[in-house]
Prior knowledge:
disordered N terminus, 5-stranded antiparallel β-sheet, 4 helices, alpha+beta, 5 strands
Amino acid sequence: MSHALESPMALRRIAALVLTAATCAVTPAVGAPAAGAVTPSEQHRQMPVPLSHGGDRLKVTVTDSGTAMDGTHELKCHPTGGDHPKAQDACRALDKATRWGKDPFAPVAPDAVCTMQHGGPATAHVTGRWAGRPVDATFKRDNGCEIGRWDKLVPLLPSAGS
């Protein structure tokens, strides 16, 4: 005896109904969302990226910062390890900065308008894997945008005041 739910077509229909029901549950009704409501796109932006246990390893090379961070350090997160001088704080800061659709290591946009200020000669190069993705990013402090980009990753990178 064959059951109707065993056919591939029936399973596809059930999957489509479940997907539709799930979509309706998170999609606001026509019109503005209720006060304080988070729209699906905002929820998507706010959701942290799932931690990739055992795969978050970065090599951080800092030059000319004038701090104990000058040199090359390894950072491991999930669990925390390596010889980075502020490993636990750096992992925590990276976890906080990591969101779906947002690369914490992304370069400054080519069309960004940046203040013309110099934040010192420090440079950094970060390579490895973070949140399951390869990282190969260079940092410097030669304009306001680059300084802001650097400062967002302190304590992975040294603070200008340390």
